[in-house]
TrEMBL record:
Similarity comment: family membership: Belongs to the short-chain dehydrogenases/reductases (SDR) family.
Flavoprotein in keyword set: no
PANTHER family xref list: HYDROXYSTEROID (11-BETA) DEHYDROGENASE 1-LIKE B-RELATED
Source domain of life: Eukaryota
Transmembrane residue ranges: none
Signal peptide: 1-28
Pfam families: adh_short (PF00106)
InterPro entries found in the cross-reference section: 11-beta-HSD, NAD(P)-bd_dom_sf, Sc_DH/Rdtase_CS, SDR_fam
Protein name listed in UniProt: Hydroxysteroid 11-beta-dehydrogenase 1-like protein
Any GO molecular function: oxidoreductase activity
């Protein structure tokens, strides 16, 4: 197929998808008032902003992360913002038992669950992979296995409430890139597992929806430190990313993309592989 024909078809598809997006259901913040929500990885960045948005919308929330001292401060802010209830539980997702403990705590304290937002990630270096397989195994436990464990544990409670699992993933789980090999592997695993689980739940006529959120570069402090000197492209605000995550979950979308370019890059990936690779080698900088 000639390149010009590909471009025409690609442009037509993009236009149709934009029209479909704007004709979809509308989101009401009021619909989340009183909803019972568990948010993981809520001590910083996107997870922190997700918790604040839910609080402002009047939800009942349980937040979790490793740092108890930080969680205590965030609970007070969530209550000040308008959360009907705000509780925390410190947990380390490298420990598989902690995943179970978090769900049990949230279900007991909130007397059920409506939303589970899976957002936590393990810290990982940015740069050429050094061949450390043990680190990959550890990161897979934090970024993938614990997500599966929490989802499985929460499914019975979510079935009772027509609930939702919201999985925060990344463009790096859709599109291969240098400098983040272990991280990208965990995100590809998330997209594969939860994308497949969407189909199985639908086939079982389950009440539970799964939303996978594909995020591009977000301006969290951690991300900005890691990419400095490696990537030359704009970052988008964490508070807006958090709002889009919540909105997508409330509308029970299968997939959500933020910022706008992430969806089109996933299409570009398969339609124009040569230009995809040239783009990657332009925006990423190798520093030996």
């Amino acid at each position: 197929m000639k390149s010009s024909v590909k471009l025409f078809l690609f442009g037509s598809l993009c236009a149709a998808l934009i029209a479909l997006h704007w004709s979809g259901p509308t989101f009401s913040e009021e619909s989340l008032k009183g909803k019972r929500v568990l948010v993981t990885g809520a001590s910083t960045g996107i997870g922190e902003q997700v918790a604040y948005h839910y609080a402002r919308m009047g939800a009942q929330i349980v937040i979790t992360a490793r740092r108890e001292s930080v969680l205590k401060e965030f609970i007070k802010k969530c209550l000040d913002l308008g959360a009907q209830k705000a509780l925390y539980i410190a947990a380390d997702m490298a420990e598989i038992a902690d995943a179970d403990r978090v769900v049990e705590f949230a279900e007991k304290q909130l007397q059920g669950l409506d939303y589970v937002v899976l957002n936590h990630i393990g810290s990982s270096p940015y740069g050429m992979w050094d061949g450390d397989v043990d680190f990959v195994r550890w990161l897979m436990q934090v970024n993938f296995h614990s997500y599966v464990k929490i989802a499985v544990k929460a499914l019975p409670a979510l079935e009772k409430t027509n609930g939702s699992i919201v999985v925060v993933s990344s463009l790096l789980g859709k599109m291969c890139s240098p400098f983040a090999l272990p991280y990208a592997a965990t995100k590809f695993a998330l997209n594969g597992f939860f994308g497949s689980l969407q189909h199985e739940l639908a086939m079982k006529q389950s009440n539970v929806s799964i939303t996978i959120c594909i995020l591009g570069l977000i301006d969290t402090e951690r991300a900005m430190k890691k990419i400095k000197g490696y990537i030359d492209m704009p970052a988008y605000p964490a508070h807006e990313a958090a709002f889009q995550i919540i909105k997508a979950g409330a509308l029970r979308q299968d997939e959500a993309f933020y910022p706008w370019y992430t969806f089109y890059l996933t299409l570009f990936r398969d339609w124009f592989p040569y230009h995809r690779d040239q783009f990657i080698r332009t925006v990423y900088k190798y520093q030996p």
